[in-house]
Amino acid sequence: QVQLQESGPGLVKPSETLSLTCTVSADSIMNYYWSWIRQSPGKGLEWIGYVSEYGTTNYNPSLKSRITISLDRSKNRFSLRLTSVTAADTALYYCSRVRTRQLLFDSWGQGTLVTVSS
Amino acid sequence: NFMLTQPHSVSESPGKTVTISCTRSSGGIASYFVQWYQQRPGSAPTTVIYEFKERPSGVPDRFSGSIDSSSNSASLTISGLKTEDEADYYCQSYDRTNQVIFGGGTKLTVL
């Protein structure tokens, strides 16, 4: 059973860069996409983007200019960088495994809350 | 881009049946797989339906999915409602460039 665990700072200052890592256990990075999704307090799910097993990416157009998702195969983990954050980026950030054929988010981490505040 | 529109909330009594709709604004509903996720308070989402109507193992057959091309919508139906079904439900799909969209979510109250 695959397990995903998000890690990173819980507090980021406005205009700075948010960096999160998702460590994947009990599964290989290969044969799936790996994605980030966020959920603002009391709101719905927002897809941020994904990285493929080969490192190719696909991003939400509304965030594309500020995000980078990358893969570290040697450590079985992937990462999110979101630049120039504002209070609107305060959210619970989830990492997820994605089945490529259906774009099904079939396994999720528990989520990590990131607050943007000075 | 496209949108997936869900009702904000639905409510029904235990033992009854409820249907949650998910309407696609552009692009055929049948052209791209639709998934449904259940999110209980304080928990990550879990899949209840994928590929329009398939149930993952462990999801009871009280949960079913369907699509209606005439209304360009997908539906999640839960029969024999239980209090444990009370949760937020999200539909999800994508487009030809693999841009992923989640519906706005529907809060199900079982009262």
Seen as an oligomer or otherwise, the chain set is heterodimer
Report the biggest beta sheet of chain A as strand number plus sense, adding barrel if it closes: 7 strands, mixed
Mean pLDDT of chain B: 97
What is the number of helical segments of chain A per DSSP (H or I, 4+ residues)? 0
The biggest beta sheet of chain B is recorded as: 6 strands, mixed
**What is the overall number of helices of chain B?**
0
- Topology of chain B as a string of helices (H) and strands (E): EEEEEEEEEE
- Low-confidence segments of chain B, given as residue ranges, are none
Q: What is the overall silhouette of chain A?
A: globular
Structural class label of chain A: mainly beta
Please compute the radius of gyration of chain A using only Cα atoms: 13 Å
Terminal CA distance of chain A: 39 Å
Main structural class of chain B: mainly beta
Give a count of the beta strands of chain A, DSSP E runs of length 2 or more: 11
**Helix share, percent of chain A:** under 10%
The overall pLDDT average of chain A reads 96
The general outline of chain B is globular
Along the chain, the helix and strand elements of chain A come as EEEEEEEEEEE
How many angstroms separate the termini of chain B? 37 Å
- Strand composition percent of chain A: over 45%
